[in-house]
Design goal:
The structure holds two protein chains of two kinds. By secondary structure, chain A is α+β, with helices and mostly antiparallel strands. In chain A, the strands form six sheets. A five-stranded antiparallel beta sheet of chain A has the order 2-1-5-4-3. Chain A is rod-shaped. In chain B, helix 1 (11-22) packs across helix 5. Classes of the chains: A alpha+beta, B alpha/beta. Chains A and B meet through helix 16 and helix 17 of A and helix 1 and helix 5 of B.
Chain lengths: 697, 137
């Protein structure tokens, strides 16, 4: 059997339609099934066979896509045609589309159940057919027909989608993507899924996720309150989707998104690299990454942004998206920074405090300390932050540890002086206050030690105490001396005095005149010696007598002293004047009276004028009283001025001016005890002016 | 004749005092002890108690104040008048002695004339006109 005959036999027996059309459309052959279907045709022409011959012709003109297409036969039957060709003929095979119509209807019902749009698309991105789902579209799906992706979508999305489509067809793989399109009511979001078809086209299911997205607005609103935005990035398209809050966080108008597109522009140059690296890490290692960066918001303010990103995987475990949140943490960051700054400031403050201060946590570990802390306690470590106090000072007293515990329980503990003998034998005297410190909630966070090394002061004080002790014992010795002087020294003197007198009394008749004179000299000497001893006792006892201060009326005090001196005043016809005297001052009245007595006494005594004039005057100093006793007496030569205040110092022979040389020494001592000084000046009359000060109380 | 116990370590003072007494109208019998302890021994051993004790302060072994304290605590002796006769003019000594119930505090002077006056006033007051307790049994 000739193969051609077999083939012819096959064609003739087949229920499918076979149609061969020469390229010049002149020769047309068909199999019996088609002939039967068409009935008696007057002529076998394209026009006779097809209901819409122009469409077929148009189709045959562009025979490049060899896909199945439906055309109606002239008898009204819809036939699915597939087309192939060679140099001379078009070969069309067809089958009544009745069955496929059923499938189509079934398919339609399935698609209708989904809120999706289905398009059949050519590898060039042309819409070939559609299945409209329930998803509301503002553009009716018919409008897509015959158009290319680039005519429907913005170029940057179309380009991307086309690439995915081609990838789907080439690799025969299902590919998903997301994109958003501007609609009159705002941005609409779509998921697209490209499914390769056996005919070399692909089927894309588009789901409008805008409603779903809107469902998320509630979530977003709550996120907004928390200043959290969500974002999603398509790895293939690099397209980024943001929730509204991100616009708020970035300080962007929603319309402005195109301008910034990725948001990266808001970050610092070096941070952008980090973001890219992190995104790559998420994709590559499929893990979650978080970073906190400062941005320059679109409104030129700065904000701290905490971003979390994580991978979204498809069923194959491939990363298809990076999704995450973005949060404005400026406030908490500011608080954190402020806290950090406060801590830094505190640490600096403590560091440079010119005292040995340290701050500890509850475990007695150093939080902060002053430089003086290290230097005062000879700490050789450079940084003791975080170290335990007991590590730094292994030789502290055991009792101190329990003190620390008590303070950590809330007690404030102060010790004005504590001795610490260190391991190396060195001795420290410390003064310190330990206080607990509390955090904002009032919980004790540790303690602060304010300490002062007072070793030097204490040692000075101890020395002082020792010398005071020595002085006191010296004083006791002096008193002992005074007692000895008053008894033991006077006793032999009394013997001399009494027996020289007794001798004179009982045996004068046995002596010549000279002998009697000699006894007189012995007796006189004894009397003078006794006076000297008594003055010396007065002087020494005066040095340790403390007098209670009281308000003293100066005029009354002076008048009392003048009464004591009245004999001398009368004898010398002295004139006493008061000048600017204060009413009353607070002072040691006996001491002051004694000073006045001696100065007035001297003023009158050492005076050769017919009328000695003595003026007592007063001046008020800022912190002292200044008294002067001015006379018109014999004066004192300037080179002797200091000498007059020395004990037993006499400037004049006894016969001319009597005196024992102790008055001014006593005055000087008394004035010094009243916290003042005494000095001598010569005045216009050639006399003396003795001035002295006493401290004001 | 009144009996005087003179407790004094200075020989010169003993002589001066007896010299001064000799110029007074009162003639008295003197017993001398050279310190407080001797004086106390005398008082406790002799049945005859003195009518007056003249007491110096500054003495070895047992000084005047210590002697005074013991005498004034002793019920058998405390009635004997004790006159302090001393060089000391110190307030402390005077106060202490009166606190220890001394009956008088007299000062030894530098010149004999003054001393005579002191002794005369003493004999006038304590021996001449005073009635004293009969201690003679």
């Amino acid at each position: 059997m000739h193969p051609n005959n077999n083939l012819r036999n096959f064609f003739s027996k087949s229920n499918d339609f076979f149609l061969i059309i020469s390229k010049d459309y002149q020769k047309i052959e068909m199999n019996p099934a088609l002939e039967t279907a068409l009935g008696n045709l007057s002529s076998k022409t394209v026009q006779q066979i097809f209901k819409t011959p122009e469409k077929i012709l148009l189709r045959l003109e562009k025979p490049l896509d060899s896909n199945v297409q439906q055309f109606y036969l002239s008898n009204g039957q819809l036939v699915d045609w597939s087309l192939s060709f060679d140099d001379n003929y078009f070969y069309l095979t067809g089958r009544l589309a009745q069955n496929s119509n059923t499938i189509k209807e079934e398919m339609q019902s399935i698609f209708d159940a989904f809120p999706d749009l289905g398009f059949k698309m050519s590898p060039e991105g042309r819409y070939l057919g559609y299945y409209a789902g329930m998803t509301p579209t503002f553009i009716p799906p018919e409008a897509f027909m015959g158009k290319k992706l680039s005519e429907i979508m913005p170029p940057y999305i179309a380009e991307n989608q086309l690439a995915l489509l081609k990838q789907c067809i080439e690799k025969k793989a299902i590919i998903t993507s997301q994109y958003s399109l501007p609609y009159p009511d705002g941005l609409h979001h779509f998921d697209s899924k490209y499914i390769p078809l056996s005919d070399g086209n692909c089927f894309v299911i588009v789901r409008n996720t805008t409603d779903y997205t809107r469902m998320q607005e509630l979530l977003e609103e709550s996120q907004s309150r928390a200043k959290i935005g969500s974002w999603e990035m398509n790895i293939d398209t690099k397209e980024v989707f943001w929730t509204n809050e991100i616009y708020n966080i970035y300080g962007l108008d929603k319309q402005e998104k195109d301008k910034v597109y990725t948001g990266l522009e808001l970050y610092e140059e070096e941070d952008r690299a980090l973001i890219k690296k992190n995104i790559n890490d998420i994709i590559e290692h499929k893990h979650t990454i978080e970073h906190k960066l400062q941005i320059n918001k679109a409104d030129n303010t700065k904000a701290w942004i905490n971003t979390i990103g994580y991978p979204v995987l498809n069923a194959d475990g491939k990363v298809i998206k990076v999704r995450g949140t973005l949060q404005d943490v400026s406030e908490s960051q500011a608080i954190r920074l402020e806290l950090q700054q406060n801590k830094d400031t505190l640490q600096l403050l403590i560091k440079y405090t010119p005292a040995a201060v340290a701050m500890f946590d509850n475990d007695m570990r150093y939080i902060a300390y002053s430089d003086r802390w290290l230097s005062d306690y000879n700490v050789e470590l450079e940084d003791i932050t975080g170290l335990s106090h007991y590590e730094v000072f292994p030789d502290i007293k055991g009792a101190w540890k329990s003190d620390h515990q008590r303070v950590l329980e809330g007690e404030i503990y102060a010790n004005p002086e504590d001795k610490w003998t260190r391991e190396d034998g060195s001795v420290f005297y410390l003064k310190y206050v330990l206080r607990p410190w509390r955090d904002k909630q009032g919980t004790i966070g540790g303690l602060i030690m304010f300490t002062e090394v007072i070793t030097e002061q204490v040692e000075t004080r101890l020395k002082l105490e020792k010398s005071v002790e020595e002085l006191l014992s010296t004083n006791a010795e002096l008193e002992q001396f005074a007692y000895v002087a008053s008894h033991d020294l006077q006793e032999p003197l009394r013997m001399i005095g009494n027996f020289s007198q007794l001798l004179n009394k009982k045996y004068a008749d046995q002596l010549d005149d000279k002998g009697v004179t000699y006894l007189g000299i012995i007796f006189d000497a004894a009397k003078r010696m006794k006076a000297l001893i008594q003055n010396l006792l007065a002087y020494s006892s005066n040095s340790h007598q403390k007098e209670i201060l009281k308000e003293v009326d100066i005029k009354s005090l002076l008048e009392e002293k003048l009464k004591d001196l009245s004999l001398l005043i009368d004898e010398k016809r002295a004139e006493i004047k008061f000048q600017n005297l204060p009413n009353s001052i607070s002072c040691a009245s006996n001491q002051l009276g004694m000073v006045f007595y001696n100065l007035i006494l001297n003023a009158i005594k050492f005076n050769d004028k017919a009328t000695p004039v003595v003026t007592i005057s007063y001046k008020k100093g800022s912190d002292k009283h200044i008294f002067s006793v001015i006379d018109n007496g014999i004066g004192i030569e300037s080179h002797l001025r200091e000498k007059v205040f020395k004990i037993f110092q006499r400037l004049h022979p006894k016969k001319v001016y009597s005196g024992n040389g102790i008055g001014l020494a006593l005055c000087k001592k008394a004035v010094e005890q009243m916290g003042g000084e005494i000095w001598h000046e010569s005045n216009e009359s050639g006399g003396s002016t003795f001035s002295f000060t006493i401290i004001k109380y | 004749m009144p009996l005087i116990l003179h407790i004094e370590d200075n020989e010169g003072d003993i002589m001066l005092t007896q010299e001064a007494f000799s110029t007074t109208a009162v003639s008295a019998q003197f017993v001398v002890a050279y310190n407080g302890q001797e004086g106390l021994n005398y008082l406790r051993s002799e049945r005859t108690k003195p009518d007056l004790i003249l007491l110096d302060i500054n003495m070895p072994v047992l000084n005047g104040k210590e002697f005074l304290a013991r005498v004034k605590m002793d019920t058998k002796l405390k009635t004997i008048p004790v006159v302090i006769l001393t060089t000391s003019e110190s307030n402390t000594d005077i106060r202490e002695c009166y606190n220890l119930h001394a009956n008088a505090y007299l000062n030894k002077t530098l010149d004999f004339d003054s001393y005579l006056e002191v002794i005369r006033s003493l004999t006038d007051f304590w021996l001449k006109h005073n009635l004293y307790i009969e201690n003679h049994n």
